[in-house]
Design a protein that fits this description.
The chain is mainly beta. 10% of the residues lie in helices and 47% in strands. Strands 8, 11, 14, 15, 17, 19 and 21 form a seven-stranded mixed sheet that branches. Strands 16-23-22-18-20 form a five-stranded mixed sheet, with no helix packed on it. It has a four-stranded antiparallel sheet with strand order 1-2-3-4, with helices on one face.
Length: 548
């Protein structure tokens, strides 16, 4: 009898399924591992990018690009969850913690490690592959990615540190293997000597000393800079020169101390900006003030060991200047002219920097366009007033205290000017006589005259003074017409009383004069109007007081 072989046995089906599951799990695990390797490489790339950015920022600003403190950890303390990547073994960080042992700021290894949040907004055009928080240690400048990347049971937070035997390695004596020349700008610049030394342990590994105590072995520098606990600070008003000196450095690293002598060379550098090329008759410039449309030529001059110079115009607000020699200039000559044209209102910081960043000079440039509300003022009678207002560009609203405004009149017999006691940018003109006067508005900025604006004042028309009379009295009033108004220009003169029951006014057409008749006690306002043939009218008023 023949067997039916069309079907598969149960054992065969089960074995097939098992094999497929094994293959599927292997593929899944491999894919997952590949993804994690890719994530780890992204982490490494981000850390390298941040290391470069931090190094540049620290060199230019002398501080880390951080915002808030992230955490402070003391060796031996229980760690909080948000910094659980910092694991320890005894009093030293364990080798599998993937954390830089130099994070701790005490040579005994039982100090504190302080971490800050990196402020990524302080970097220009930075692009990272991972989102999330990056922190940096203030001691070692090691950068960590807080979220970490876990691969095969190990979570990675930063680049491989390659500390094979942390405790024993750190107990080797530390030596100064190289020193770099120090280029020190004059005028109060401070640098840390440790930044100009390279350290290694006696077994050849790069080291970061926990502590360095300095003592000067040779002097000769006192006239040029000071030394205080490893901080070198240049003095002002000294000649640019080169100073070589020796300093003893006692280097401590986790209980091991050794004293080494370092030879350091300091190149004092300086850059100045003058208003004249002749250095025997110059004014050094720290601030330049322009009126819009003005231009000037200034000169850069380098001293000591400064190399080629670059000119950088950094716009603060507005676009107030145009350095016609272009925005960035490289030049190797000792003195170099810079032509500046004030093209628009604004504030600009013009920086001249040595190519290698060894010295820099910054000049504040302000461009103003002040104006008066009235360039010409016409006052048609005496004792008439008019308000003058000076307007300064709103860009400088927060620097009002740097201004000083002086108002004056060229002819106080015609017009006087009185400053507003509560606002120096406003004043009041008062006409006191017929004629012309010029009101001068002198503007000072930081105590130096910026410009003077003028307003022409013309006082003309007619004037009549207040009058005292007794009831029953009659007088012919006197009034004054500007001598520049001839009789041939006048078509008519009118005088009216506000209260004819108190004061009656009669006009004698033949004699071309007026008669005031005081009828009873009281006051009346008198208005005199001089009408010209061309239609112009000049008016003035006075008060007639009638007593018994």
């Amino acid at each position: 009898m023949l067997k039916n072989n069309k079907g598969m046995s149960l054992v065969t089906v089960v074995m097939t399924v098992i094999v497929m599951l094994i293959l599927l799990s292997t593929l899944t695990y491999t894919a997952y591992t590949n993804i994690k390797i890719r994530d780890l490489n992204k982490l490494y790339n981000d850390i390298r990018t941040l290391n470069d950015q931090v190094a540049v920022y620290y060199m230019e600003n002398g501080k880390l690009p951080v915002s808030d403190e992230y955490a402070t950890i003391t060796v031996g303390e229980e760690l909080s969850d948000n910094i659980s990547f910092v694991t320890k073994e005894g009093t030293f960080i364990s080798q599998d913690s993937l954390v830089n042992p130099n994070d701790y700021n005490d040579e005994s290894g039982v100090g504190q490690a302080v971490y800050y949040c990196l402020d990524l907004g302080l970097f220009d055009n930075i692009s990272l592959e991972n989102d999330g928080q990056y922190i940096i240690n203030e001691q070692s400048h090691t950068i960590y990615y807080v979220s970490g990347v876990t691969l095969k049971g190990t979570t990675y937070y930063t680049l491989p540190l390659n500390y094979k035997d942390t405790e024993s390695n750190l107990k080797y004596p530390v030596d100064i293997v190289t020193t770099r020349d120090i280029y020190l700008p004059m005028g109060g610049t401070s640098l840390n000597l440790q930044d100009y030394m390279t350290f290694k342990t006696s077994d050849g590994n790069v080291a970061v000393p926990r502590k360095i105590d300095y003592s000067v072995a040779t002097g000769g520098y006192e006239n040029y800079f000071t030394l205080d606990n490893g901080i070198i600070t240049s003095k002002s008003n000294t000649d640019a020169t080169t100073i070589a000196f020796e300093i003893d450095a006692t280097i401590s690293s986790y209980g091991v101390s050794t004293t080494k002598t370092a030879t350091l060379t300091v190149y004092l550098t300086d850059i100045k900006i003058y208003d004249l090329l002749d250095s025997s008759n110059y004014n050094e410039i720290n601030t330049l003030n322009f009126i819009k449309g003005d231009s000037a030529t200034i000169y850069t001059k380098k001293f000591g060991n400064a190399g080629n110079l670059r000119l950088i115009a950094k716009v603060e607000t507005g676009d107030g200047i145009d350095a016609s020699v272009s925005n960035i200039i490289n030049h190797s000559v000792e003195a170099y002219p810079i032509s500046i044209e004030a093209t628009n209102v604004g504030k600009v910081y013009l920086t001249v920097i040595e190519n290698n960043g060894r010295a820099a000079k910054e000049v504040e440039i302000n461009v103003f366009d002040p104006s008066l509300n009235l360039e010409k003022v016409m006052l048609n009678s005496l004792n008439e007033t008019e308000k003058l207002e000076l307007t300064i560009d709103e860009i400088f609203n927060e620097e009002i205290d740097r201004f000083e405004i002086n108002w004056s009149s060229s002819n106080t017999d015609v017009a006087t000017i009185e400053n507003d006691s509560s606002n120096q940018f406003e004043s009041t003109i008062t006409s006191v006589g017929f004629g012309k006067a010029t009101i001068n508005c002198e503007i000072l900025f930081d105590g130096k005259v910026l410009t003077t604006l003028d307003s022409e004042v013309t006082v003309t028309g007619v004037s009549i003074d207040d009058i005292q009379m007794k009831a029953g009295e009659k007088i012919n009033p006197t009034y004054v017409i500007d001598s520049n108004i001839s009789s041939s220009m006048i078509s008519d003169i009118e005088i009216t009383s506000s209260d004819t029951a108190i004061l009656e006014i009669l006009k004698n057409e033949i004699a071309q004069n007026f008669e005031f008749s005081a009828l009873k006690t009281g006051t009346s306002t008198v208005t005199i109007t001089v009408k010209l043939i061309d239609g112009t009218e000049y008016k003035d008023t006075c008060v007639v007081s009638v007593s018994s």
